[in-house]
Design goal:
By secondary structure, this protein is an alpha+beta fold. It is about 25% helix and about 15% strand.
């Protein structure tokens, strides 16, 4: 199991603590894949850059479940062996083997001999050396850390009293838990360019309106491109489209800010525009070319231009084989 996945434990534990159970936790994961990735998008043709061929996404999930089932089985076997070594559980039953003597032809009866004819026999018990074992601390009931009441940060965000939030360079996702009986018509959400107010209408939970969020946003947002929805069993999902691509330290002005050092600055490829994606692919191509000792894209482009000019009209090299060694190429 890759130990690097443990770096996300604090964020995942924050979500798990917030939803309380495994089933809604899985719903959150797949909701994220649906809203923020191309995981559920079906590729229309081979040239499509987004999504997966039919059935591939489902197979990825099944393969992952199968792999972790094997890991869990191996951990359980290892735990049983540890407990068996410390005496916490009895050892497994062993096979019973019947042993016959070498001389099966000679049989003696009580009339053939008496006890006086036999030498005195003594039973010698083998000496068993007992190794001193160091006292071991009792193992946890589960190999996973327990979920406590301590609130942990979400991905590049935090868990607040009335909501939790996460962010990328382009947008902010806010989750506001509400009672299960709340419907979309019972909610009042005002999304402004620099202000956010979330409240439940009078009579839904209490006689008067219950304000859940009300404050100025840290930065401006694109109001027309922001939206919200009510997800049963999860709560209100609010997506705010950032006006500037930068990381926020808080959603509402005046609230406690997250630590800047804890922000993951990774920018995913699908979050970039087409020009940025093209630039990234070119940079990766150049990196691999340099690593292999081959010309970069700029050097290849320069090479093609010089090769065309080599045999052009008026060139002193016209009619001779192209030899870049004769040229002083500066890229």
């Amino acid at each position: 199991m890759d130990p690097s996945v443990e770096m996300y434990d604090s964020a995942l534990l924050g979500i798990l603590q917030h939803v309380g159970e495994i089933k809604p936790f899985i719903e959150v994961v797949f909701s994220f894949l649906l809203r923020r990735t191309d995981f559920f998008r079906i590729m229309k043709d081979k040239e499509s850059k987004m999504g997966f061929p039919p059935g591939v996404a489902k197979q990825l999930v099944m393969d992952t479940v199968t792999r972790y089932e094997q890991i869990a089985k191996s951990l359980m076997e290892r735990s049983y062996e540890t407990k068996m070594a410390t005496g916490e559980v009895p050892p497994r039953a062993v096979e019973t083997v019947e042993v016959e003597t070498e001389d099966n032809n000679t049989k003696s009866t009580p009339s053939d001999s008496t006890t006086q004819d036999l030498p005195e026999q003594k039973t010698i018990k083998p000496e068993v050396k007992q190794e001193k074992t160091e006292p071991k601390s009792a193992p946890y009931e589960s190999g996973l850390p327990k979920v406590t009441s301590q609130k942990s940060d979400c991905y590049n965000g935090a868990v607040r009293d009335n909501y939790s939030w996460s962010q990328t360079f382009t947008d902010v996702d806010i989750t506001v838990p509400v009672p299960k009986q709340v419907k979309a018509k019972d909610v009042q959400i005002d999304i402004g360019r620099k202000h956010l107010k979330v409240s439940l209408k009078p009579g839904v939970v209490q006689k008067e309106a219950e304000v859940l969020i009300d404050g100025d946003l840290t930065y401006d947002i694109r109001r027309e491109e922001s939206m919200w929805s009510l997800v049963p069993g999860v709560g209100l999902q609010i997506n705010l489209e950032k006006n500037l691509e930068k990381m926020w330290l808080s959603v509402i002005e005046g609230e406690e800010e997250i630590q800047r050092d804890n922000i993951d600055p990774t920018r995913h490829l699908h979050e970039m525009d087409e020009d940025a994606q093209a630039g990234w692919r070119q940079a990766m191509f150049d990196f691999e070319q340099k690593k292999a000792g081959k010309p970069t894209s700029k050097e290849l482009e320069t090479h093609n231009v010089l090769e065309k000019a080599w045999d052009a009209e008026g060139s002193p090299f016209k009619g001779t084989p192209f030899d870049p060694a004769k040229l002083n190429i500066s890229t």
